[in-house]
Every structure is written in C-alpha cells, then in structure tokens.
Design goal:
This protein is an all-alpha fold. Helix content is 79%, strand content 0%. The protein is built from three helices and no strands. Helix 1 crosses helix 2.
C-alpha cells in the first residue's frame, strides 16, 4: 500500500516540476496538472523499467517520470485547446 501512496506523492512532485518547466495557463488548472503528473510518473516509470533502462531505485526514474508528465501535459493542452476553439 505504501508503494501506491509513494507513487502518488512522487507524481505530485513530478507534476509540480513539469508545471514549472511548462509555464502557461492549463485548461484544467492546478489539480489536473497534478493528476497528469501522477499519470506521467506511472507511465514514465513503467516504460523505463520495462525497457530495462533502470531499476526501481535508480535516479533515472525521476527523469523518465518527469518526461512522461511533460508529454502528458503537452498532449492534454493540445487536445483540450482544440476542443475549446471549436
């Protein structure tokens, strides 16, 4: 159970850092950005470990999680931005 809570806290931190790297107004606000950070941490962490790039406690996990969060935030901005213009 602590593993899931740890990923949520880690995802919140990653989401905050991703927001700092991608300033601007997000369509969903701060809460959606944090949720995207959690999802990005899970996706990036899973993909990096599945590819064998690092182990569970390697610092590269933070970088992959951050990359996942930034990509998800960018995709979210593109998709929601398109919907709001229609």
């Amino acid at each position: 159970m602590f593993g899931v809570i740890g990923w949520i806290i880690f995802g919140l931190i990653v989401g905050a850092v991703a927001k700092l790297l991608m300033p601007g107004r997000d369509p969903g606000g701060f809460i959606v950005t944090m949720l995207l950070g959690i999802a990005g941490a899970l996706v990036g962490g899973f993909l990096g470990r599945a590819a064998g790039w690092y182990g569970p406690n390697d610092p590269a996990g933070f970088l992959m999680s951050l990359l996942g969060a930034v990509v998800l935030l960018l995709l979210y901005r593109i998709v929601v931005g398109r919907r709001s213009r229609m």
